[in-house]
Amino acid sequence: MVGAGPTGLTAATYLARFRRRVLVLDGGPSRADWIPKSHNTPGFPQGIGGPELITRLRSQAQSHGATIQPGRVETLRASPQGFRLEGDFARVDALTVLLATGVVDHLPAIEGLPAAILSGRVRMCPICDGYEAIDRRLAVLGEDDLVQREADFLRTYSPDITILRLGPAGGAAPAEATCVALEQLEIEPDAVVLRKPGEAARRFDHLYLALGCSAQAQLAVAAGARQDELGNLLVDAHQATTVDGLYAAGDVVRGLNQIAVGAGEAAIAATAIHNRLRSTV
Ligand SMILES: Cc1cc2nc3c(=O)[nH]c(=O)nc-3n(C[C@H](O)[C@H](O)[C@H](O)COP(=O)(O)OP(=O)(O)OC[C@H]3O[C@@H](n4cnc5c(N)ncnc54)[C@H](O)[C@@H]3O)c2cc1C
Fold first, then answer.
1. pLDDT tens digits, one per residue of 46-77
2. Which of 9, 64, 88, 194 has the most Cβ atoms closer than 10 angstroms to its Cβ?
3. C-beta atoms surrounding 171 within 10 Å
4. Is the CB of residue 100 below 6 angstroms from any atom belonging to ligand 1?
5. Does the Cβ of 38 fall within 6 Å of ligand 1?
């Protein structure tokens, strides 16, 4: 397993319960570590923080015998036995590999951004937490069609939405949007504030980022796997990539970037891997 986010850890639990030898290579923080409190993760009606969820998923996988080891995979290639993975952990040989390496969010250079994401003032996922923004003053920051789509999605929750299009200070924007430069946005304890020269300051309860993300698909691509036009890994109904024996699940593949989706794909991939190995070992 490459990646110790919700997807990799769920797959580890399934495979360990199929009595497979499972190694999870953990290359660092999960995207879920940004989540202040998730209210749409199944089974947690009061919500659960991302780090707490990761702790529980790690413990569940380990309790069934999975090994979780720090390690960033730098190369992955097919070998006579299956695959050879190399990185800062030296070398690992595996019969099959599941990539659950997630995405990297494109973040703007706004002072205080990490703390504002962790507090929920700045948000990245209307599907995740739009419900917690009902009737709030919202701004959506982006550059292309995505910003309009995200703003439209948020209209289910609030009538008070301002589209902020990134551009040079003083630049023009379409009538329905405001053109902003990043230095005009300030994060305060109780609001995100837009200060444009010659205009009254505008305060927003939440700033949604609509700047996209990049799939961490490089390892699979170098091994020969195909991507879609957005860079997500292409997989079949069993989560198999176009490279024999290499599977992928979660945010790194095409589909909805959600914990529940990653967990479902992990279950499918783990079962496919187990069934594949049953015919040989
Ligand atoms: C602010 C925020 C709030 C969110 N809220 C919610 C929510 O409420 N509900 C919800 O369903 N979803 C939410 N999400 C989305 C959710 O976090 C992701 O869908 C989920 O984390 C994806 O899990 P994953 O395991 O596929 O990828 P990740 O969680 O990103 O894990 C990927 C793992 O792969 C590792 N990795 C990457 N490359 C390598 C490598 N070369 N070698 C080794 N390891 C590597 C990373 O270090 C990481 O451990 C939110 C996201 C954000 C940013």
1. 999 999 999 999 999 999 999 999 999 999 99
2. 9
3. 11
4. yes
5. yes
Q: Decide whether any atom of ligand 1 lies within 6 Å of the 9 Cβ.
A: no
Q: How far apart are CA 47 and CA 35, in angstroms?
A: 11
Domain spans in the chain, listed from the N-terminal domain onward: 6-104+213-278, 107-210
CA 215 distance to own-chain centroid: 9
Q: Which positions ≥6 away from 159 have C-beta within 8 Å?
A: 135
DSSP label at 154? H
Helices 50-63 and 6-17: crossing angle in degrees, nearest 10, is 20
Which residue, among 103, 47, 77, has the nearest Cα to 243 in the 3D structure? 77
Query: Taking the CA of residue 47 as centre, how many other CA atoms within 13 Å lie in the half-sphere pointing to its CB?
Result: 11
Tell me, what's the pLDDT at 167? 75
Class of domain 107-210: alpha beta
Average pLDDT over residues 106-119: 97
